[in-house]
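Could someone model potassium ion with this protein?
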Amino acid sequence: MKIFTAQQLHEADQITQKNQQITSLELMERASTKIFEEINNRLNGAEIKIKVFCGIGNNGGDGLVVARKLMEQGYHVDVYVVNYSDKRSDGFLANYRVVKEETKSRPVLLKSEEDFPEIKSNDFVIDAIFGIGLNRPLVGWVQKLITRINDSKAFKVAIDMPSGMLADGVIKDQPIIEANYTLTFQAPKLAFFLPETASYAGNVQIIDIGIDRKYLAETSAKAILIGKEQAVSLYQPRSKFTHKGDYGHAYIVGGSYGMMGSVVLSSKAALRTGVGKLTSVIPQCGYDILQTSLPEAMVNVVPHDIHLVETQLELKEGDIIGFGMGAGTHEKSIELLTSLLHQVKTPMLIDADGLNMLSKHPELLELIPEKSVLTPHPKELERLIGSWNNDFEKLDKVQEFSKKYKVTIVVKGSYTMTISSDNIYINTTGNPGMATAGSGDVLSGVITGLLAQGYDPAIAAVFGVYIHAQAGDMVIADSVPDALIAGDIIEYLGKAIRSLFEKPETKA
Ligand SMILES: NC(=O)C1=CN([C@@H]2O[C@H](COP(=O)(O)OP(=O)(O)OC[C@H]3O[C@@H](n4cnc5c(N)ncnc54)[C@H](OP(=O)(O)O)[C@@H]3O)[C@@H](O)[C@H]2O)[C@@H](O)CC1
Ligand SMILES: Nc1ncnc2c1ncn2[C@@H]1O[C@H](COP(=O)(O)OP(=O)(O)O)[C@@H](O)[C@H]1O
Ligand SMILES: [K+]
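Reply:
Sure, complex below.
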């Protein structure tokens, strides 16, 4: 599913009106009726006090339509107009008149803190103050209103966006409505998936309001959400008359004394993802561990007992290296990475201490084979690209880095983002149970295994992230997130891939 910018969504709105020959007001009525239906279905006639806070733009217009329809349905509704500007959109003005005429109610005008109503914790608040039109800091009293609404602990539903949030930017130190639900029009907004802002949107539901299909299909998106529908098209099935040589040879290079588990996890994950042959390249202290815990792996020890050092690998064309898990950053181990970077021309996967080595020696960045995949968690990313002021700046910096070194970067997190040049792919699977030591090592193994099987690197990253997180979700389906350990994710990789081809159960 595509994520568009606010500007694109405004454009989509215009094109829809033109192509469907409807007025802006008719589109607003259509969109807001859907919101009303959602809310009405949920409230089911409940005797609850509904407070609708409307801005003076089209988001406020939506709020007025929803308020009118709720009143007509018999709900107890109070409407507040947040008068942050003297300008009013046509959609707002028209619906303001209709509300007054048809419901005989009079919206309360809020102009300062003195006008704020009391909001009780059992009230139901509809936030229609700002939508995608917010473009600058809010005046103080409107900020205070947002804080007041949040402090009330009332249940909050945001229309299109929680007010105070920008679709594709950020205003520093500004309060945002902490919505329980956001009913958003047509397409999700980028801010719903970024660590700093995601939680404000609560549960997001996308409301199809019949925006021009051609525009949606043909306009290039700011980012793409990856779910089952997208992932299934990336899978490469095995054919019958094949042998292990057709599925590649992966080398997992990593480990140090006390950290050998990372190599076991990565190696096993690569095998479970379908790689034909796998060699773990490790310090000598890990030999017995690897051979005992993973008999399917071949083991190649470097000439040092406790950490990696330079060694010659007999690499053949197409062999793939996954480097860095549990490796430490000893200078002698960095010599191995340096020599591999000089020797290898095929894309590599670099993770964990491999990334820390690159941060320590940025001169190595130029040597990374084109199309390699780097999988940093936020701290590793910061070491690599420097700090950022907000998530949008982070994305810009990652895109710049990706273009400069021609690599794909997997920014791990609750919504892991895979960035390849101008493309941003946002993963929608995964759960907090995966915030546990070793789950990143599993992901590295998965992606290395896919690379070795010939998946295009950006696809290996996007697909690998999806099945890794989907496996994590399947682990907790009959357990709890707290109990998940990284090894469980490996055991569910097969089921995660199979789930791509299973139809969701339909209720009788
Ligand atoms: N696109 C679609 O598909 C559909 C969209 N619909 C709805 O329209 C909503 C967008 O409406 P909108 O453009 O009128 O903007 P909205 O968010 O109401 O803001 C109002 C105005 O406030 C201003 N302003 C900005 N920041 C400010 C600040 N800090 N302090 C003071 N003023 C500030 C700014 O105007 P400016 O002053 O910059 O000219 C802005 O225009 C959208 O979210 C959805 O709910 C649906 O009805 C139908 C389908
Ligand atoms: N809250 C979360 N929701 C979804 N996925 C998560 C969450 N926390 C962590 N993960 C996933 O778990 C993995 C953790 O990787 P990483 O931090 O490198 O762990 P480690 O270094 O211990 O192996 C990443 O793939 C990340 O996306
Ligand atoms: K809103």
